[in-house]
Every structure is written in C-alpha cells, then in structure tokens.
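G., the chain you wanted modeled:
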Amino acid sequence: MTEERTVVPLLEPRDGIPPIVADAAAYARTVEAFASGSGPVAVDAERASGYRYGNRAYLVQLRREGAGTALIDPVSCPDLSALDEAVAGVEIVLHAASQDLPCLLELGFRPRYVFDTELAGRLLGYERVGLGTMVETVLGLRLEKGHSAADWSTRPLPEAWLRYAALDVEVLVELRDALHRELVEAGKLEWAREEFEAVLNTPPPAPRADPWRRTSGIHKVRNVRALAIVRELWTMRDRIARENDLAPGRVLPDAAIVTAALEGPRTKKALTEISAFTGRSARRHMNDWLGAVARARSLPDSQLPQPSTAGDGPPPANRWADRDPAAAKRLAAARAVVAALADEHHMPTENLLQPDAVRRLTWEPPEVISEESVTARLRKLGAREWQLTLTARPLAQALARLEPAREA
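Predicted structure as tokens:
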C-alpha cells in the first residue's frame, strides 16, 4: 500500500479552465483533438440528481495526453457518438464506472474498455475509495471538494464548478497508472480486468413492476386501502415530476405520501394540515393530490394492491431462521467462508463474492454439493472466474459439512 506523503492541494487545472464545448464547431475540434491524443482517456460526468427527473448528464469532462481537458455541455451537444468513434479502441478511465456509464450511453458514448479506479481501490483493500480520498492517498494530492451534489443543470455554470469539474479528470490517468502498478504487484490485475469487463456488460436494470413500493416509510402503511393511496399519490407525483423535469422528491416528499395514506384526508383543509404538503410545489398541485386520494378511496376491493409482492429471490436473511433453519445455517457458514477469504485477500466481502449470489446459493443449494455444482451455480448467478477460483471449493466444503442437516 502507498506510504503516507505530504499532501499538496490541487487548486487549478494545469492548463487552466477550458471553455465549455457547446456548439458544433467546438465539438468537432474536440473530437479531432481526442482522436489525435495518446494513452487512456479520463472521463467523468456530472448529473443533477435530487434536482431533475432522471439521471441524465449535464456536463461531461474528458482528458487525454496531447488533447488536454474538455468540458462538454451535453444539453447543447447531446450526441457524443463521433467522439465515441474517435476513441473506440482506447481505454476509458472512470471512477465508479457503474454510476456514469448509463448517462454516457444515453449520449452515444459507449466505452469498449474501462479502468475503474474505485473498483481497483476496492480490490486493493483501500478502506475509503471516494475519488478525493484515493487521489490524496495514492498520489498525495488534495482535490477541491464541495460541488458534487450541486444542481449541474444550472446555466450558466459557475466558474468554481467548472474548475471542480476539470480537476476531477486532471489526475485520473495518473491515479489509474499508480493503481495498475499496485494491481500487478498484488497479483490482482486479471481479477480487476474481469471486474471491469463485468461492469461494461452489466445490462440496465429492468423496470420495477411496482416502483411505488419503494416509497420511503411505506412499511408504516399496513392497510391495503392506505396502500392504494400511496400508489395513487406516487403515480401522480411521478407524472408531474416527469412533465416538469423535477426530481420527484422536490414535487412532494415521500413523507407526505405516507402521512396522507395513514390519515386519509378528504378535504383540501385536511390535506394542508399535513406539514409536508405545505411546500410551494406541493401546494401548487393540491387538487391533483386530492384527486389521487379520492381515486384510491373509490377503488373496488378487487383493484386494491396486495400488502407485498413476491420477489424472485430469497426472503430477507433475518427471516431465514424461522422459515428455514437449515438454510440459515448454510448462510451463516457461507458468510463466514467469504469473510475469511476476503480478509485474507484484503478486500470487502461484497467484492470477493456478490452477497446476492451467496444468499441464492444457500437458500436453494445444488441437489448434490460439490465444487463443480457450486461453481456452476455461482457462475449462473454472475460470479466471475477469479471469484469462482477463490470461493467455490471452500464454499462447497462448508455446505457439504452441513449436508446431513438438510431435509431428505
């Protein structure tokens, strides 16, 4: 692991803050510059989570040797496919790639090869893997903080934000190079390559059947008629948020939905007595909220939502001891194996083997426990080859020891 060193503040991009690329001519020059550059391309994207509907990018930052840094406004330049083609065979360096890839894909930027500096840090056993911490720990440089949660849909973007954005890719390739060396020294480079490939090949999540069930605090709602109010209010809020390009929580907080479901207000006065409905945005749509509550009240019993929906996986682990004691023992044994191996190889347990794979394996183990059957099951559950090499045999041995406890 890198030794402690004097930390130097990184206050300004070495080439200054570049002008924003916001028209066709500037974009064409950027494509040409990055096509003629050399080495990996550092990429980052800024979104407006918590402010706007969805997770689109509102600024894309890139840096490459020989090309310098570019700050692209994807509102003005929404198609980055030409840039994508210009660097098609080049390694793209991202920090927490799974967060940025979806919004980059929306713009037509589709990396073929990635190096994820956050994931590399996890595999190497760094306790804190945020970009600022990694840059400070590995390179001895301190990045400016404070604008990651800003509303990046703001126009024009303040100079301080642009400086912050440019600095996010300023030394990302240098961080990549240092971590690459550490991965080689630790014998983990091939593991990292498999993980990076998995990140690229992970399909987008399928739409949830009942997204309204994710409402924070819904566990307090135990009546199906009240659940119908949650559903109707959530659906109305989502429509308003989408139409106005606002984060749903800025239209109406989850707490308001849950409180309304529990209290069942019938009048505008009763609704305004719920404190969470007193916000300016919530007041603007008061008739919509009352209509949603009224619709829920008028639904026939046959159209009321069920208390919960059956998932496609095991139940929550805290229920296993009651529902299937033998499965609970298998899970405890498997978790102990994974924890010991993760400690041995200096990485978080969730990076050694996905927790969901461990749960599914132990909830419904193979009919015949063997290294081969456990390997096959874990591979089907998405485990990478390096993970199988480390975990399949010890997991099979641990489960086999519990085999007599299984029901015939």
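The first strand starts at residue 8 and ends at 10.

Shout if anything looks off.
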